[in-house]
Amino acid sequence: MRLPSELDRLLREARGRVYTRTERVPLAGLDGWHEDPATGSIRHRSGGFFSVEGVGVRRPGHPVPHWEQPIINQPEIGLLGLLVKDFGGVPHCLVQLKAEPGNRNGIQLSPTVQATASNYRRVHGGSPVPYLEYFAGASPVSPASPRRRVVADVRQSEQGAWFLRKRNRNMVVEVTEEVEVREGFLWLTLTELHGLLAVEDLVNMDTRSVLACLPSGPAVAAGPAATAGPDDFAASVVRSGRGDPPALHPTEAVLSWITDARVRTELEVRPRRLDELARWRYDEEGVSHDSGRFFSVIGVRVEASGREVNGWSQPMLAPHGTGIVAFLVTRVAGVLHVLAQVRAEPGYADVAELAPTVQCVPENYDVLPPAARPAFLDDVLGADPADVRFDTVLSEEGGRFYHARTRHLVVETPHLPEPPDFRWLTLRQFSDLLRHSHYVSMEARSLLACLRSLAVAAREPDGVPS
Amino acid sequence: MRLPSELDRLLREARGRVYTRTERVPLAGLDGWHEDPATGSIRHRSGGFFSVEGVGVRRPGHPVPHWEQPIINQPEIGLLGLLVKDFGGVPHCLVQLKAEPGNRNGIQLSPTVQATASNYRRVHGGSPVPYLEYFAGASPVSPASPRRRVVADVRQSEQGAWFLRKRNRNMVVEVTEEVEVREGFLWLTLTELHGLLAVEDLVNMDTRSVLACLPSGPAVAAGPAATAGPDDFAASVVRSGRGDPPALHPTEAVLSWITDARVRTELEVRPRRLDELARWRYDEEGVSHDSGRFFSVIGVRVEASGREVNGWSQPMLAPHGTGIVAFLVTRVAGVLHVLAQVRAEPGYADVAELAPTVQCVPENYDVLPPAARPAFLDDVLGADPADVRFDTVLSEEGGRFYHARTRHLVVETPHLPEPPDFRWLTLRQFSDLLRHSHYVSMEARSLLACLRSLAVAAREPDGVPS
After folding, report:
1. What DSSP assignment string belongs to A79-115?
2. ipTM, interface predicted TM-score of the complex
3. Any idea where the dTDP-4-dehydro-6-deoxy-alpha-D-glucopyranose 2,3-dehydratase domain is (chains A, B) (predicted)?
């Protein structure tokens, strides 16, 4: 896909100016970090940022009823903020070209603000976070600021297999006032930004998260596709986002299905010593599973330019293998339905969330019981290429995850029967749930942003304001 | 208020047959309970039911920035289920005449099912819970059972000052099939049941909770009041429930206000030994605050008839003083608005919930700093009687709380300015939030049920089916 020319120019220019160089170092010697003797956990000396801890997980009745693992504990609620502004009737959003140490390609597109509470409270003593005042002022929803309107403001989880109860505040604020465009930032139309999801490793995870929290309204759902016939795929996406009837399941039934899963699921997570986790080895290289699968916790030293701080060390989680997240989708009377899974993860604040139809790292199942193999994985991997509507590898968050990449797939299928933990939902049902916290997982939000991009794929990109 | 004659007859009859006799006994000698040496907590030998534990609470910036207290930890999610059925076009619900050891008057009206998980899994070896099959079957939302429709199904918190992360599943199921009416149960119309909220200590807390989770739809909001003029109070309640414009605040702004409070509030709850809580005395009589205020934890021996089990012992929480919960309400262009408070409590699963305008036990403020005195308390206590729309003392849950009573007030005021933690909301905005977990507190749900009853207060009671 061709990049908008302004973005292309800025990316080339920024890649010289903004970078991080990352060098692997032993976990034990990380500057500013220490091992807590009581728990074996790895903590920052400030008490801020995050820690790497051990947990034991018990899931009676699950194919893997017990396991232990390292997990990242980041109790602070960070901020992912996207500024939106209308230029000549076209909604634009302000994105940042941001380098993160875990990005395999350096710079990706981040939201206007992407900051942990430690960042914006300046625990590390760095420079202030640009544009924070639009989101994190004393009164972000002040009726006295009619030039700033909160479009979305909701706490959402992140990867429940890697983070213990991590939540970020996802905010979209629409402004009518003049906004200074600082170095490393640019306005893209919402259509352009969605279109860029088809570029490998470009739109970062936080941007995908906050894009998914946008109400499915005119911004994305408009356009000629809306009036196309029932056999037009893009039109079926638009209708699904608009909430055109019929949804297969009334919303009360969907809410009851989620409540039932959250009440029924037995999932117990208890702290364990990080240096005594069953089947994990903790040595010079970091913490790794004895099978070589899943992920390792590693140490890195980072040299950075164009960020708040010029250099630091930190632990990172380095997954082994490229992940797969996939939505099976089907058209019911011309309205796209998405096969959502209700999925429990040890790190979720509220037991279970709506997840992609398939979410896994296929290689991991070589060392797990056959019953653990995900439903529908073969439907996704064996799909006729003509049915694959979206297929792009995108990166996970480069501040915590090292070269973590996930192949995002949308595959059209006939209307399949639903196993108990699966339901066909419309995009409007997802949007309605996304106004509230902890219903839709990070992986599902990422795929929803990709899926919505298919509503506008056939359109010409709108112009960028000069 | 006159009781429906069938209810009056059943209550008289049941008071002879169903009862609990409660005798205070020392906490230390409770049959079936023991003190955990590691924590001082009081636990049941089965590991089920609940425990009484100690916590320390830190709230920087709050008038009481630190305190310690006993709290009830009941991690199991219980079920409050209400069966609803249409008889001749009139919606009815099946209530139970149920005696609880903490009820000062013995029998109150409970939902069709009111059961802890220990109850319905029969940890105590008692008889099966009647009507459970309508709610807690393997597949409560089976599309194969069109004769049973889930109307509401949501986990809600209970008193966050007394319970640590307690949640109950509130379910309303509408049936079209024949339902056997067992001894101690009867069908009341929804209008009758709402009307009975004006009777002291009759409609129990669990019934009020689940009634509040009913969608504000035709069931309660219908009737002649809907067509009355803008100066009719009942009509303003109906319009507010129906979601007639204008709501003072758009829903996005309300959601953002709640998100902001939950992100901003610093509230830390840590375990403490129950027998070493600062300012609490643990002796033969139980656990009590040295000021004599707040509440005590006491032990009781219960002799029961007409329940699953004939006798048992348990700890209970006995509050000192009658509580007050009050909504200030005002009419904006003929639509009732309710002044909701976003309120943090140590026991909430998600930091803060929407609470009544005023919620307190006034006597407690004799021993607290003056800054802790609740906003609007004087507006409520000093209200002109002509502005008081509802004023009834109702009981808190009699299974955990001993003679716990709360005066429920609805007071009409002019349109007052909103302090930061308060917003004027419509009943429809509350109903929309009540489809989701943990937005609306127990105390607010209880008052919402009372407030809705004012929409139908002017109507004649519907008939009861024979």
Report:
1. EEEEEEEEETTEEEEEEEEEE-TT-TTSEEEE-SEEE
2. 0.92
3. 6-214, 252-451
